[in-house]
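User: Hi! I have a protein structure encoded as tokens and I'd like to know what sequence might fold into it. I'm fairly new to this, so please keep things simple.
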């Protein structure tokens, strides 16, 4: 597909390779309120009661307080132990537990009890399973749509090692949004995402559009792990060539001393500049800010990308 060419006319300091220590002080724009409030407490209790996990907790998302207080959560299926060990991710690495075929039922029950109009589902990587857990995604989509046909479902999937059969299982269940995050520049994949492949991620997104041209596709890049500005723009161009509709750009925050250090903090103005570049490239919607994560304000992203309104939720805003 033809993609508008955006010229690189910017003179900004490049990030260079990752350093051994993070910048001395986290900027003020990255400070968030500690989680709390009645909705937060209720949602946490509900997750424990139904034996469910959220990426909000497992990945230590800085937006957990805001999102949970608005009854918005990203469910994480297939357990909370990942078979891969990405250098930027806080999710536990190791040997996962056995696949639970009843998890889609429990998840759909939670969605129904929360009264959600839009739900986001992701998972750990499950390279130990034949289809990487694709059946679980398909089961969750089907069960939610059976109970709540007006609820839109967004899935943030692993790369399934490039398996088109696994991707087909998910796409045949008709998710409203298929999301797979590119995460970082190609040069940094071996360091930051050793189990992944840059061009495999792009191919998955392109194949999803080919399998269901009516579905929205989405991807994200996290900034500050050592990429240069021009490499971010290349990632954005590559995602448009894969016909991705929605783009998210956010700041990398180091989960612990065992993870990659922060090479630099991008300013809100730089994120705004990247948003404008993305819109010029033809993305339907670009969510770009220091605190943006893949599912941050996901409902607003859907509305912005499609221009369509959605039936009201039975409970608080998503």
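Assistant: Happy to help. Inverse folding works backwards from shape to sequence: for each of the 318 positions I chose a residue that suits the local structure. Here it is:
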């Amino acid at each position: 597909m033809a993609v508008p060419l955006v010229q690189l006319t910017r003179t900004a300091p490049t990030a260079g390779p990752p350093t051994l220590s993070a910048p001395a002080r986290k900027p003020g724009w990255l400070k968030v309120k500690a989680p709390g409030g009645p909705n937060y407490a209720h949602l946490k209790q509900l997750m424990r009661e139904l034996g469910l996990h959220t990426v909000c907790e497992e990945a230590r998302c800085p937006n957990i307080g805001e999102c949970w207080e608005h009854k918005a959560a990203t469910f994480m299926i297939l357990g909370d132990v990942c078979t891969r060990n990405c250098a930027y991710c806080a999710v536990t690495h190791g040997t996962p537990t056995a696949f639970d075929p009843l998890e889609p039922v429990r998840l759909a029950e939670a969605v129904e009890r929360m009264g959600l109009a839009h739900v986001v589902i992701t998972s750990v990587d499950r390279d130990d399973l034949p289809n990487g857990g694709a059946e679980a995604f398909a089961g969750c989509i089907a069960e939610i749509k059976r109970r709540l046909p007006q609820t839109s479902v967004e899935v943030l999937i692993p790369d399934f090692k490039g398996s088109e059969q696994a991707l087909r299982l998910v796409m045949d269940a008709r998710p409203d949004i298929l999301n797979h995050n590119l995460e970082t520049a190609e040069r940094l994949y071996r360091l930051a995402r050793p189990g992944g492949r840059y061009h495999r991620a792009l191919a998955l997104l392109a194949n999803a559009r080919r399998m269901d041209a009516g579905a929205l596709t989405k991807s994200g890049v996290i900034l500050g792990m050592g990429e240069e500005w021009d490499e971010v723009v290349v990632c954005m161009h590559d995602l448009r060539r894969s016909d991705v509709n929605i783009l998210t750009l956010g700041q990398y925050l180091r989960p612990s001393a065992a993870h990659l250090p922060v090479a630099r903090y991008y300013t809100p103005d730089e994120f705004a500049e990247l948003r404008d570049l993305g819109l010029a490239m033809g993305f339907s919607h670009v969510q770009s800010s220091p605190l943006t994560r893949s599912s941050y304000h996901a409902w607003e992203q859907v509305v912005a990308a499609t221009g369509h309104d959605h039936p009201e939720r039975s409970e608080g805003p998503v």
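A useful reference point when you look it over: The chain has eleven helices and ten strands. Feel free to ask if any position seems puzzling.
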